[in-house]
Specification:
By secondary structure, this protein is of the alpha+beta class. 23% of the residues lie in helices and 34% in strands. It is built from three helices and six strands, in the order βαβαβββαβ. The strands form two sheets. The protein has a four-stranded antiparallel beta sheet, covered by helices on one side. A hairpin with a 2-residue loop joins β3 (54-57) and β4.
Amino acid sequence: MAQYAILIYAKSDVDETEVVPGAREAHDRHFEDMVKSGALVAAFALRPAADTATSIRGDVVTDGPFVDAKEVIAGLAIVEAPDLDAALKIARDNPAVQQGGGVEVRPVEGGFVADRPAGA
């Protein structure tokens, strides 16, 4: 079965008053659905880019995301699916799509996850 990266985009300038009620719970339910279906390989939520991103281009290091954009990558998931259509269905169910953000689906060419000893 093929693997697909789902890049999850959110608005870059959302303050706490704009957060959709129940947004976190919707993402948690989507995560659990992917786990139960057996599609989820890995998932990572990222901290807000404006506060934590550091970008490097050549010899220049700057605070903030690499590109000044209306949306930033808020997280990513790696899923297994029989084909792109199945991966798109999984991605389309991501709550970010209904919360003003979006998703991008790309086939994974290769990957590696380090085997780390417990407690390391």
